Amino acid sequence: MNDESGVPVPQSFIDLYVEPGRVKPVASREQIAERHEFCEDLAQLLAQRAGEIRADLGITRQDVLERMRLGLFDDDSEVETREAQWVWTRLLELLGWTP
Prior knowledge:
This protein is mostly helical. The protein is built from 4 helices and no strands.
């Protein structure tokens, strides 16, 4: 499955939409692909912004990550908790940083 930009949707993202004990996702392929594109774009944007924040504010990686984590997991965030966790993992992957 590819998202709308043609990027393959990883199984780890598809799994967000498979309820325990089930095999089939609870969302359509189109919905999952659309959400993946949004979450991947968000992770890419946050990765870019993390470097800018660190340089602008002169703070540690840990401080940058804490600020990003708080925003991702905020109740007003544009992503659900399961998506936020995926974005968080992807962000760390992109940055090559550890929490």
